[in-house]
Amino acid sequence: MSGATALFRTEVQRDVLRDLVLSADNTRTAADLARSTGHPPSSVAREVARLVDAGLVRTTPRGRRHLLSADYADPFMAAVRDAFAAEATIEAERDRGVRWWSTMPEVAERVRDALADDDSIWANRMLCDAVNQIPLVAALDGLDVMLAAPEPIGDDRWDALLAGAVRYRLRLIDRSAPSWTERDPLPAWWWPGGRGARAVLAMQRTPPELSRLGIWFDARNFTGA
């Protein structure tokens, strides 16, 4: 069962919301939805009425028609939008048949090169960007290739950051981590973002996979990479 499918009470609800969310202008009538989903108009009308009553879908009179639109201020509808967007992305990437994501050996090599150029900011961004792709690559059944063991970067701190970040992202999707990500704590604490004003916030928001290693790295760095 996909993440999107698990959100819904019935197939009619799923299909109605999928067509509404993914429509070009995010508006449909109940008759439009019945035609596009293939469900009986009466079933679609009942589902639309439930969604409107629940405040998940808005209805706007336009002549003799009533245009339906999703209310993304509601957390459930925001989750629905994100789930269908991810589902569409996965299907599009599966059809491409081209590897666009980086393996961990490739990431380690690029981080190593960036550090040789004294560019830790770029190294940090490349690492986060790559690790952020783990959920999508997992959906594409590519983790065995992606998570091959990398060669050492040449700095134990960065090796530990990569290993801990991989473990963190895998935990979020309930996947086990490869053995190469198991590491001992660093001999001294490290703040990859520096010891400035945000160091205290980093300590409060660091995932346990990194804090255990003595690395203080705000989890928001992954969402904002």
General description of the model:
The chain has 225 residues and is mostly helical. The protein is 55% helix and 5% strand. The chain is built from 12 helices and 2 strands. A two-stranded antiparallel ribbon has the order 1-2. The chain is elongated, with a radius of gyration of 23 Å. It starts with 10 loop residues before the first helix and ends with a helix.
What structural class should be given to the helix and strand makeup? mainly alpha
Give, in spatial order, the strands making up the sheet with the most strands.
1-2
As a percent range, the share of strand residues is 5-15%
The number of E-state strands comes to: 2
Mean pLDDT: 87
Terminal CA distance reads 29 Å
Helix count equals 12
Map the helices and strands.
Blueprint: H1 11-22, H2 30-37, H3 41-53, E1 57-62, E2 65-70, H4 75-96, H5 104-116, H6 120-132, H7 134-139, H8 143-146, H9 156-172, H10 199-205, H11 208-211, H12 220-223
Antiparallel strand pairs: 1-2
